[in-house]
Each structure stands twice: as C-alpha cells, then as structure tokens.
Write a structure and sequence with these properties.
It is built from three helices and 29 strands. The radius of gyration is 20 Å and the shape is globular. The chain has one domain: Neuraminidase.
Length: 375
C-alpha cells in the first residue's frame, strides 16, 4: 500500500488500558503498559446501522470486549468476535449495510494492547472476508465509509504519550482508498483530540470535531499562543475555523456553513446520510441540539455525562450512551423514544428511585449475544 502525506514522529512500544481507548482516548492516563481487563460492564462508541433499525457499540462485560449489534425492534443481540491476538473496536456499517469497518488493536503475548500499531479493517456484514486496509504506525480511530463505499475516513494519532492527561495526541484526519490502498493525510493541524468524522454526500467534503489544534501553516500554538490566536481570528473573519466543528474539502479548509451562538462551544457533530440534518453537543452540558440555518437551534435530547452519540442515517433518531444505558430520542419531537440498559445498570445507585420518578419505556439488553457473526 502507498502512504501519502506528511510523516509524523512516533513513539514505539507503548501500550495502554483498553477501557481508556473505549472512552474516546480523552480520559486521563498515567502511561505505560497495563492489563487489558475491564471489570465494568460498559457501552461505548455508538453508531446506527444503515437502516436505523439496529445500533452498533463496543461492550465490555466480565473481562471481555466485543463489537455488538442490538436490534431495536426484535431485541436480538449479535456480536463480532475478534480472533486471538486482536481487539476489535469502533464498528460502523457502510451506508448500504453490506460491510462494516472498525479499528483493530493488536494484543501481544503478555495480553497487552498496543495502541500504536492499530489498523483499520473492513469485513462483510455477515462476518466474512475480514481484511486490514491500512498500514503503518499510529493509533487509527473512528473509521467511517464514504457514501460510495470506496473510501474510509478516519482519525490518526501520530504520537503516543508516556505521561500526561491523555494517552495519545497529534490527531489528524486521513482517508484510505479501498480500491488502490492509498492512504492520504487530509489535515495537518495536530489536534489534542479529534472525532466524529463524517463525509458529506459528495464524498469530498467532510466534517469533524477538532480540539486544540497544535499547528497551522507552520505556526505552532505553543509557545506562540498570542500569534496563534491572531491567526485563528483571521480565519474566523474568512468564515473558516480549524477548532470545534470543522469542515474540509479534501486537504482544503473551506468556508464553514455552520454558525453557532456565542459561548456555545459545539462538539460531537452528527450528520445524516443526505447531509440535511446536523445535530451537535452544546458545550459540556450533555445536551444535543438540532442545527438550524435560521439560528433557531432546538433541543433534541441528552443531558448528563455523555459517553457517545450517533444519528440514524435518515436523521430521525438520536442515540446517546451514558456508560450503561442507551437512550434513543425522536429528533422531530425532541423527546425520549425508548431507553435500553444492560444488566449492570440495575445496580446503579438510586436506579429504582429514578425509574419511579421518571417513568419511560425501557428494554434490557441481553447479557450475552445469541449470534456471533462469521461462525
């Protein structure tokens, strides 16, 4: 495979706890190599399937982690089980539902996950024809198909930290052409963190959330903070930005079509398949709003400590995870449709009190999948 774009420095031989990876690589870390066992029953990295009838998520339970698929209508729970020596995470279906893409984390002989050797893979939806589609070092995360199914957009963290608040840094957007194998770097901003990468319908433009860019046109944010702020101000006057909700066309930074109220600090942008519906997280409130070109942004749902969020391809449903539960909201009505919870959630403090005071339609996610794809 060919790899195009600027080369980034990389520290080899560093491994981290998987539960940190599952929580979007933005939680504190002490660095070094740790056990992969996650003793909590947790749900993360949520997405909908192609027709919005199923949700896909990472689930760690009793020391084992899988990509699981839950049917919202029938209640069936299925899973993709990674082979020995690998951990699969961050699964997302193609828009036609025929394939799934995900990140692959190698596990060494000592049971340690190696973040720096992560790759992107694809597989038929039924679990057949598994293959990795990227090469090279760096943590490769949050893969998503183009509408044509010929490309995959993903984030790559070029630097693995040995210490500090987060385990990885210097994030940028990349894409891989599934027909030629070419990997192309699309952004060169070295973010502290980035996520929620999504193509617009033309498969050229894409949006994402970028937190604290480290460099722009050769100027670093540190130690040149004041000059960097001036540069960002110049971009804003052009209708462009490289922080927050960002819109690109290939490697070109273009005018951003989204304008937000002051002090909003939007995050987690979610785009429908046709690009007509965009939902965003307001600051750190945990609340999601439907974007309006007229500025009449409307509350859709959420609130509290959000783990992950997703929009159905048709833009009608918003899914939000809160560690052990998945809430599904009607976007049109701005209200909760149904809540799904796993068995461990019933042991949360004040669970019964919460149910009595805030009655809602609820279903329990099965403890174990009834079907393993590919078997």
């Amino acid at each position: 495979m060919k790899i195009s774009g600027k080369k980034e420095p990389f520290n080899k031989g560093l491994c981290i706890l998987f539960s940190i990876i599952a929580i979007v690589l933005s939680t504190p870390s002490t660095g070094g190599c740790m056990s992969i066992i996650d003793e909590k029953d947790s749900i993360s990295n949520l997405s909908f399937n192609h027709d919005g009838r199923k949700v896909v998520f990472d689930r760690c339970h009793a020391g084992s982690c899988q990509i699981q698929v839950y049917d919202l209508e029938t209640g069936e729970l299925a899973a993709y089980q990674s082979p020995k020596g690998e951990r699969w995470t961050m699964g997302k279906y193609a828009y036609d539902g025929k394939k799934i893409t995900f990140s692959v984390i190698p596990i060494n002989s000592k049971g340690i996950l190696d973040l720096g050797e992560m790759q992107i893979a694809i597989m038929d939806a039924d679990g057949e024809n598994y293959r990795k589609v990227t090469t090279g070092q760096g943590a490769k995360l949050y893969p998503t198909f183009s509408h044509s199914g010929k490309k995959i957009l993903y984030a790559r963290a070029a630097h693995i930290r040995t210490q500090g608040r987060t385990p990885a840094g210097q994030y940028d957007a990349w894409e891989v052409n599934l027909e030629t194998g070419e990997q192309i770097q699309l952004t060169f901003f070295e973010y502290f963190y980035m996520g929620n990468l999504t193509y617009f319908p033309d498969d050229e433009r894409f949006l994402y959330y970028g937190d604290r860019p480290g460099v722009y046109e050769g100027m670093r944010s540190y130690p040149y903070e004041e000059a960097f702020r001036v540069k960002m101000g110049e971009l804003e006057r052009q209708g462009k930005r490289i922080a927050g909700v960002v819109v690109m066309k290939g490697q070109e930074l273009i005018v951003n079509p989204y304008q937000f109220p002051p002090q909003t600090f939007p995050g987690k942008p979610l785009l429908s398949k046709d690009g007509s519906v965009m939902i965003y997280l307001k600051s750190h409130s945990g609340k999601f709003y439907l974007y309006s070109e007229e500025g009449k942004h409307r509350l859709v749902g959420g609130g509290g400590s959000v783990n992950a969020a997703a929009i159905s391809p048709d833009g009608e449903l918003l899914g939000v995870t809160y560690g052990k539960t998945i809430n599904i909201y009607w976007v049109k009505y701005g209200r909760l449709k149904i809540q799904f919870y796993n068995h461990a959630a019933t042991y949360m403090e004040n669970w019964d009190k919460d149910i009595r005071e805030y009655p809602r339609k609820q279903n329990m996610i099965p403890d174990r999948p009834s079907k393993i794809y590919g078997r």
